[in-house]
Amino acid sequence: MSAESPLFKDFSSTGCSGHRPMIDRRQMLTQCASGFGALAFTTLLGDQLAPILEAATDDSGKNPVAKARSVIFLYMDGGPSQVDTFDHKPELIRYDGKPFPEKMERTQFNSVGNTLRSPWEFRHYGECGHEISDLFPNVARHADDLLIVKSMTSKFSEHTNANYFLHTGLGLSGRPSMGAWVSYGLGSLNQDLPGFVVLNGGLIPPGGLDCFSNAFLPASHQGSIVLPKEEALANIRVREGEERQRRKLELLARLDHLGLESTGGTQAIEGAIAQGELAYRMQTAVPEFSDISGEPEEVQELYGIDHEYEPTRTFARECLLARRLVERGVRFVELTCPYVGTDRWDQHNNLKDGHEKNARAVDQPIGALLTDLKRRGLLEDTLVVWAGEFGRTPFAQGRDGRDHNPYGYSIWLAGAGIRGGHVHGATDDFGYRVIDKPVEIHDLHATMLHLLGVDHTRLTKLFGGREQRLTDVHGHIQHEWLT
């Protein structure tokens, strides 16, 4: 602790023969409270270091446990249909147009129609033989890198609660996002950029910015919302002269430190100081990473930067920026979907048109991202996760849509430590309910943290009288997913 701390204040010059001057009760309570807070600092520091115990480095500076250095989370807002993407069910062809032969759960809107086959053909890809629909020809080229989880479940069938659950491990607002937990546990490998970045393609999910919140974690771990444009953050460039801005920031810093001295140090003030300093450094770092003009023409073409379809151009830039961010040491990057003129992946009607527009927007960029990461050697330590908040029903809503289905759906993972070319779990013959190796969101979170070298049971924060964690009291590492 610094000798300049209020706990080490020199009272020898008080004019009272070295005795402490008289203070009123309010001052006494303030200073004592600050002192106890400072004494607790080592405990708070221990809370932050404890999760890293699983991720201790060896003599070479590498983490022998962690397979992943960063995560790219491809969030498919709205709930893609598993039976139209990665979970082929021939029985839907046999029963197409007929009453659904199995028991139905309550759906979101209960406008239930007959069994509905997939409008797309499925083909085998890679040496592993993954069956993937024609919606994803570019992703399918990476079949041998994909672990397809066909037995994911959710506890919620409504977007907002399901989004909170997917992002924070609880179906209500007020909890830290998984990206915030990763940033809290591991920090950023680049001190000029945040540890958790959200590339906003235009669709903030139902549930809003709380999906990316730091909640009760320090403010420095909240998701930084970045646009996939040349000016990725508004007003990020210095516009009034660097020297003048530097003087303003120095004044703010002095005022903040005066506040620290008077209170003995609070998390809010310390967080504000850290955020201000990071914001200053980001004025150089953000324009640098968001400027893709130096990328080779072949790379930009691979991603689809100049694609004729505007949503593809938007997501292409997101994927390219995601690669540039993990390349620069950002721990957690989340991508949201672009607007395609229809309601996300949420096709309650007009399934064919809606899913085709969404797949057209993301397929080429995601395929390019996997190609680019792999050839640069980044896929070895970057975990890529593709997931929505739930799946969709194998029977129609109305005539040509699908309702929400949390009872069994598909996600996929690739990259660091993932067992590519493997399928985990299964749904029934109609792709409706999980019948083998069910997985829940807590298991996904636990496994993601494990791959980052973090013990999910020890990544905790004392709040509300108990040790809180991303996986709450749940979560099992899915060792079958791992190499």
Briefly, what is this?
The protein is α/β, with parallel strands linked by helices and 483 residues long. The chain contains twelve helices and 18 strands.
The tally of structural domains comes to 2
Q: If strands are numbered along the chain, what order do they take across the biggest sheet? A: 7-6-8-1-9-13-5-14
Radius of gyration: 25 Å
Order of helices and strands: HHEHEEEHEHHEEHHHHEHEEEEEEEEHEE
At the first level of CATH, the class of the largest domain is Alpha Beta
Second CATH tier, the architecture of the largest domain: 3-Layer(aba) Sandwich
Count the DSSP helices. Answer: 12
The CATH superfamily of the largest domain bears the name Alkaline Phosphatase, subunit A
Outline type? globular
Percentage of residues in DSSP E strands: 5-15%
Mean pLDDT: 85
Helix amount? 25-40%
Structural class: alpha/beta
Task: Pick out the low-confidence regions.
Answer: 1-23, 26-53, 55-61
Q: What is the CA–CA distance across the termini?
A: 45 Å
Query: Major sheet, described briefly?
Result: 8 strands, mixed
Write down how many β-strands occur, each being a DSSP E stretch of 2 or more residues. Answer: 18
CATH fold description of the largest domain: Alkaline Phosphatase, subunit A
